[in-house]
Design goal:
There is one protein chain. By secondary structure, the chain is an alpha+beta fold. Among the domains are: 126-222 and 318-373, Pdz3 Domain (Roll); 228-312, Pdz3 Domain (Roll), CATH 2.30.42. The protein is 45% helix and 23% strand. It has 14 helices and 18 strands. The protein has helices at 2-32, 95-123, 140-144, 163-176, 203-207, 211-215, 236-240, 259-267, 316-319, 327-353, 365-378, 380-398, 406-419, 425-452, and strands spanning 37-53, 58-73, 125-128, 132-135, 151-155, 158-159, 180-185, 191-196, 217-219, 228-231, 247-251, 254-255, 274-280, 283-289, 292-296, 299-303, 306-308, 320-323. The strands form 7 sheets. Strands 6-5-7-8 form a 4-stranded antiparallel sheet. It has a 4-stranded antiparallel sheet with strand order 12-11-13-14. It has a two-stranded antiparallel ribbon with strand order 1-2. α1 packs across α11 (365-378), α2 (95-123) runs antiparallel to α12 and α11 (365-378) runs antiparallel to α12. It starts with a helix and ends in a 10-residue tail after the last helix.
């Protein structure tokens, strides 16, 4: 229950901030241009709170459905406007002024993302160092000459303090269809350059968490004892009789030495019976566990509703690192990360549009809420990173040339500037209907994915 409440609170805080900043961009630019603002709303539907402020008595409201917001301006297309107020109506402004008001929302989200990444890099991000733990013989990594114990120092010349940086650079190379130049330091202290080829690796492999598997290596990590810390009532672990404090020793007769080994076995066995050897209070027991099926039909995985007990000690010196910068350097990193995430988002959307990436990668409000809660539990820096990522995504999405979105309005205004007259109202209405169908279709796919998708069990470890 506590995790659920934290997830809801993190979701409300994140989405509320992102929507408010987006709408404030529209509001502030419109107000500075002398356009009259009738209403500033965060959310849709019935108002939970509202007040009126300023000479124009602008209504500020927080509404019940927190999935967006809007700024309502004086406009002849909405209602009759008194002659003395026509110069303050949105529709009477020049094309340039209208475009400035529209683009201000996404621009505000880009600025917010830079600010959030800046705070994140100054506060410091702690995570696993990019040290290779296993290398599959004859795999891509082995062919490139990577070895167990190698630490990845840079990818295409960009320093990689954490695995996060490696993954960010890797997805760039994957989307561009090019090889990556990787600088590694061997365990003996010597360094060399290696080339990783992505042939046979798809965008969907990356999204499904199979990136390392496809490249033929795994990150080094601290072994985690397979000791149960918590069992969720009503799920497979509780039904089988597993309890907090149980030490898992074997599965189907094979020894268990690590919690991740157990998670991988459970995920690979949806609906299958596992005979689990357990040590409880000094006594050995054998229990039958049947993992529940979770995920999408094309990729079902097993889950049992059990969490690992936190290790008493973590080898932070050799396996963990903190990426932290001064205020000036952090700003540079923030600008670079915002630009990189923006371009990557556009490339990924293009891959989905041409059928080279599955729409199963789309996420809706349920998944966003889950990741908001998960990132909040990981600490302030990870929550800032999550909000920055969503802020960039919101900005990029809104700039797409789809009617009803900011990008659709910009497209209309650009055509108006070229033609020196507005598009016929009938054409605009048809475009709005088409845009509505596109957005409803995308939202339907995202919500469907949300329903059938679950956060991977491995996330529960961290």
């Amino acid at each position: 229950m506590l995790d659920f409440l934290q997830t809801i609170l993190a979701f409300i805080v994140a989405l509320g901030l992102l929507v408010t900043i987006h709408e404030y961009g529209h509001y502030q630019v419109a107000r500075s241009l002398g356009i009259r603002i009738l209403k500033f709303s965060v959310g849709f539907g019935p108002a939970l709170w509202s007040t009126r402020r300023g000479v124009d008595q602008t209504e500020f409201a927080v509404c019940a459905i927190p999935l967006g917001g809007y700024v309502k301006m004086l406009d002849e297309r909405e209602a009759p406007v008194p002659p003395e107020e026509l110069h303050r109506a949105f529709n009477t402004q020049t094309v340039g002024r209208r475009m400035a008001v529209v683009v201000a929302g996404p621009l505000a989200n880009f600025v917010l993302a830079v600010a959030l990444y800046w705070l994140m890099f100054m506060a410091g991000v702690t995570g696993p160092r990019p040290i290779i733990g296993e290398v599959t013989p004859n795999g891509v990594a082995a062919t490139a000459g990577l070895r167990v114990g190698d630490e990845i120092l840079a990818v295409d010349g960009r320093p990689t303090v954490l695995w996060d940086s490696v993954m960010s650079a890797a997805v760039d190379g994957l989307l561009d269809g090019r090889r990556l130049e990787v600088e590694v330091r061997h365990a003996d202290g010597t360094s060399r350059l290696a080339a990783l080829d992505f042939e046979g690796v798809s965008v969907d492999d990356f999204a499904k968490g199979k990136f390392f598997e496809k490249l033929g290596f795994k990150p080094r990590r601290q072994p985690i004892p397979p000791l149960i810390g918590k069992v969720v009532l009503g799920e497979a672990a509780a039904t089988a009789g597993l309890r907090a404090g149980d030490l898992l020793q074997t599965v189907n007769g094979e020894p268990l030495n690590d919690w991740v080994q157990w998670v991988e076995r459970v995920r690979a066995s949806p609906g299958k019976t596992l005979q689990v050897g357990v040590l409880r209070d000094g006594q050995s027991l054998t229990l039958s566990v049947v993992p529940q099926s979770s995920g999408q039909a094309a990729q079902l995985v097993g889950r049992i509703g059990a969490e690992v007990a936190r290790p008493e000690s973590v080898d932070t010196n050799t396996l963990m690192a903190t990426e932290r910068y001064t205020a000036v350097d952090a700003l540079g990193r923030a600008l670079d990360r915002t630009a990189n995430v923006s371009v990557t988002s556009l490339k990924f959307m293009h891959r989905m549009l041409v059928g080279e990436a599955s729409t199963s990668n789309l996420s809706g409000p349920i998944s966003i809420a889950q990741f908001a809660g998960a990132s909040a539990r990981m600490g302030l820096s990870r929550f800032l990173e999550f909000m920055a990522l969503v802020s960039v995504s919101l900005a990029v999405l809104n700039l797409l040339p789809v009617p009803l979105l900011d990008g659709g309005h910009l497209m209309y205004y650009a055509l108006e500037a070229i033609m020196r007259r507005p598009l016929p109202e009938r054409v605009q209405v048809y475009g709005q209907h088409l845009g509505l169908m596109v957005l409803m279709g995308l939202m339907g796919i995202a919500l469907f994915n949300d329903v059938v998708r679950s956060i991977p069990d491995i996330m529960r470890i961290f």
